[in-house]
Design goal:
With 419 residues, this protein is mainly beta. The chain has 4 helices and 29 strands. Helix 3 crosses helix 4.
């Protein structure tokens, strides 16, 4: 593994992690500084995303820039060298939070795989019941499947161009459902046939974001346009409701043991619960007005845990008492904690703005942290999921075009691997 990869994390995978759906593709026009290589950057980089993703980045070294765009596109050596030199000259490394390593009682090991199609920006991972790992290729308009035992990968093209597949979830029959974040539909893939079925959203509803199934097999999803939706897979019936507050951005969503969906509002200091029958939403305000919870995990006691992306905190909300408690993340107030999951009695998440990204473990009993550097760098871990055996986590490393499997009960001294 090249050392440059440790420097290749761009804040929030270039700006796209905080832009609304409509701005996440090619983005706004910007003017680049003059210099050798400028035309090459404009010709190659602007094909897939806005150049504002470069101008608003954390910057990089020449090798780091090369490693980053090599995960996006394959270029002749002279062009690649010219682009890397230009970017390093005009967009050098800026100060970034340090990825602090904290020792502790747990041991983990990582396996990482580079995905077949370059530049697809894998977004959400899925740990399927058969042991496979799925990902959404947001910029390539594909869903992907990896067999971690053999390393074999297969990509499934979607029907509607530029759907922007985002969130993933599996139903009881093994179908893979996704949210078309840059379109206006929910999709279902039959892995056996490759057939895609689309469920169109009502007029005015856009940006479907994160999906989840409840215990009865009902499909719930958040929408960036301030809505939460539900689909009955048996009938295709869909119901979408607006949140009580206006200007909201429903983001991560999970279902508790009683079948009640809970979500976080990334545009406000709010959590929300949804009545699964009536779709009535109840909002809960977090103490800090600056809080911007982004992802959510639930423990078996139905306590809500969230990553506060804006303030750099891990938060705990007890629905039974309304009590909120927060802990500053090891990476500090600018660490941008993001993807989160509950596994093996602990809360796991990633500090997405530190260099390199870290995997963070928090023990709720002792209220102590333990951290590990993600070997390839992380590239912004937007979401993670526990496997069915409860002993592993799956991660998508967006800016690095990789997915990862983490053994969270690894034997001490176990080495990491990257493929």
């Amino acid at each position: 593994m090249r050392n440059g990869l440790f420097l290749s994390l761009i804040a929030a995978a270039f700006l796209v992690s905080i832009l609304p759906a409509g701005a996440q593709g090619r983005g706004q026009a910007v003017t680049l500084p003059d210099g050798p290589g400028k035309e090459l950057v404009q010709m190659n980089c602007a094909k897939c995303h806005g150049l504002n993703n470069i101008t608003n980045s954390w910057g990089n070294t020449q090798q780091g820039w090369h490693d980053l765009f090599a995960s996006m596109v394959e270029l002749p050596k002279d062009q690649a060298d010219g682009i890397a030199s230009y970017l390093a000259t005009h967009f050098p490394v800026k100060p970034a939070p340090e990825g602090k390593v904290i020792a502790g009682p747990a041991n983990v090991s990582f396996q990482e795989w580079t995905l077949p199609t370059l530049g697809q920006r894998p977004h959400d991972p899925l740990a399927a019941r058969d042991g496979s790992i799925w990902w959404t290729g947001m910029f390539a308009n594909v869903l992907g499947r990896l067999d971690p035992k053999t390393g074999q990968m297969k990509e499934f093209p979607l029907t509607t161009p530029r759907s922007g597949p985002h969130g993933l979830v599996e139903d009881k029959d093994g179908h893979i459902w996704y949210t078309a974040n840059q379109s206006t539909h929910i999709g279902r893939l039959d892995p056996k046939t490759g057939t895609v079925t689309e469920y169109q959203l009502p007029a005015g509803v856009r940006g479907p974001h994160t999906p989840i199934f409840d215990q009865k097999g009902t499909f719930f999803f958040t929408n960036q346009s301030g809505h939460v939706g539900r689909i009955n897979p048996a009938t295709g019936e869909m119901k979408v409701v607006a949140t009580p507050s206006t200007g909201t951005y429903p983001y991560g969503i999970q279902v508790n043991s009683k079948g009640i969906p809970w979500y976080v509002d990334f545009r406000g200091n709010r959590l929300g619960s949804v009545d699964p029958v009536t779709m009535a939403i109840k909002e809960y305000t977090l103490p800090s007005a600056d809080a911007r919870p982004r992802r959510i995990a639930l423990t078996p006691d139905d306590v809500v845990w969230y990553t506060d992306f804006a303030r750099g905190y891990l938060g705990r909300f007890d629905p039974a008492t309304g009590a909120v408690k927060e802990w500053l993340s090891p990476g500090g107030p600018q660490s941008e904690p993001y993807g989160i999951a509950y596994a093996d009695g602990a809360i796991w998440y990633s500090d997405s703005a530190v260099r390199p990204n870290t995997l963070v473990r928090f023990d709720p009993k002792t209220e102590t942290f333990q951290t590990w550097v993600i070997p390839a760098g992380g590239g912004v871990v937007r979401n993670m999921m526990r496997t069915s055996d409860g002993l592993h986590l799956v991660l998508a490393e967006s800016a690095l075009n990789r997915v990862a499997l983490v053994d969270i009960r690894a034997t001490p001294g176990t080495t990491t691997s990257s493929k």
